[in-house]
Q: What sequence folds into this?
């Protein structure tokens, strides 16, 4: 059954006062390799239907949400009745609001769902074969995977809303191992036509060569250059923690002492901007809200709400927090829903990572961060590990690889201690690549990054 038809059938079967239906049709193509050999490849397809039944009750509107995979035509009525039963048993929802009836940018409702297939790797696979041969001759081993997912989402409601969004999400992760240890690189992409395997693997070979000289350093605070991937992991966590409701309730680093939020407060000592835009070139995301469930950061009642470019931090000052209509009403702040991409930019375009290294008298250059966990939500203190290459820079030259560290830092506190912000480039977060890939980030320099302990991880 076409997902559009599943939406229409579910809406026609609904006996609730209002109903929202979301159909997600997903196809995935993947490649995996290990020890310079392609090991597996495959294509999968899946679908999921979500029914949100709304029932008017004394004091408001209750919602019931049920989501199931692989729903056939004969299963839809049972799914609708299950959602209605949940709504009947629930109390009125605190985030209840009138349904969105119109929204621009909804795509072509009637066209077939978008799909991916193994042919998306038509250029990548031969390039990988050549890279395997070069690695073998250089006594290196390449490991990694490529994944491409295309999801077509169809959103309909009893209020007349009919919206559709096609979202391609691709990534490639490469790990090289050799005498110099281990080195990692990763890229995000929409279709793999922009992935340069030769450039990626040549860079990995250079980093392995640097790692052949090993230097032990103690824990402490070091001038540190964080590359765009590491910055992405930290800024994504900041973004995920920027809910207006939690801030207004005094739960987060964005809560103001005595009540309210820190909107309007200067957070960064340099004029950096952190923003999202559903239409950002190369980072395009859904231009309207798609909410499969209500949480403190999202509301099913907001489904279909148009999204627009939003500055979260503008020239160093906190300007927005993620909002639902319910939280915006509570806080009195503008409505700024979350958007599925994130861009950080500094002043004047910024220098390249190579130029930043060349200007370093003595400091550390990281590759990526790993196993990031929150220690204290009030300060957004995070801990985690460095991974796949920490390099010592002296007099503008990388002189060797040092041991791994555990770090303790708050991304909000880091913003106040920036000494340099580089040029923004598309990047792939290492830790959060399963959840968030559409980012453009700069390298940053911090004069006193806290390496709290030496890690035994190799």
A:
């Amino acid at each position: 059954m076409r997902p559009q038809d599943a939406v229409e059938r579910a809406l026609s079967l609904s006996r609730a006062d209002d109903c929202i239906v979301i159909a997600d049709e997903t196809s995935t193509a993947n490649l995996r390799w290990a020890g310079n050999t392609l090991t597996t490849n495959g294509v999968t397809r899946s679908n999921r239907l979500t029914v949100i039944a709304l029932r008017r009750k004394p004091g408001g509107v209750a919602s019931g949400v049920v989501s199931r995979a692989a729903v056939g035509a004969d299963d839809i009525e049972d799914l609708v009745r299950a959602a209605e039963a949940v709504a009947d048993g629930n109390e009125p929802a605190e985030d209840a609001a009138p349904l969105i009836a119109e929204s621009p940018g909804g795509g072509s409702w009637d066209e077939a769902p978008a799909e991916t297939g193994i042919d998306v790797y038509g250029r990548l696979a031969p390039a990988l074969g050549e890279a395997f041969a070069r690695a073998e001759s250089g006594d290196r081993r390449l490991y990694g995977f490529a994944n491409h997912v295309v999801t077509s989402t169809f959103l309909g409601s009893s209020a007349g809303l009919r919206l559709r969004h096609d979202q391609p999400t691709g990534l490639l992760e490469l790990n090289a191992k050799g005498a110099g240890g281990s080195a990692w690189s990763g890229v995000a992409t929409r279709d793999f036509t922009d992935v340069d395997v030769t450039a990626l693997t040549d860079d990995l070979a250079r980093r392995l060569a640097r790692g052949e000289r090993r230097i032990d350093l103690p824990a402490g605070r070091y001038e540190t250059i964080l590359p765009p991937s590491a910055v992405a992991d930290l800024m994504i966590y900041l973004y995920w923690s920027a809910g207006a409701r939690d801030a207004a309730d005094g739960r987060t680093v964005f809560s103001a002492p005595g009540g309210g939020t820190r909107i309007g407060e200067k957070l960064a000592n340099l004029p950096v901007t952190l923003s999202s835009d559903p239409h950002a070139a190369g980072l395009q995301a859904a231009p309207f809200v798609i909410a499969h469930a209500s949480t403190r950061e999202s509301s099913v009642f907001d489904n279909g709400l148009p999204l627009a470019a939003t500055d979260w931090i503008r020239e160093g000052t906190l300007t927005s927090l993620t909002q639902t209509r319910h939280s915006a009403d509570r806080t009195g702040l503008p409505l700024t829903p979350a958007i599925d991409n994130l861009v950080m930019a500094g002043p004047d375009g910024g220098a390249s990572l190579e130029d930043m290294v060349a200007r370093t008298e003595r400091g550390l250059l990281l590759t990526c961060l790993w196993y990031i966990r929150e220690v204290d939500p009030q300060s957004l203190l995070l801990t985690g590990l460095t991974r796949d290459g920490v390099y010592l820079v002296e007099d503008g030259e990388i002189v060797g690889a040092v041991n791994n560290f555990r770090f303790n830092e708050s991304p909000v506190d880091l913003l106040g201690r920036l000494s340099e912000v580089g040029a923004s480039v598309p990047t792939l977060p290492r830790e959060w690549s399963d959840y968030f890939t559409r980012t453009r980030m700069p390298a940053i320099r911090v004069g006193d990054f806290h390496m709290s302990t030496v890690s035994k991880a190799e």
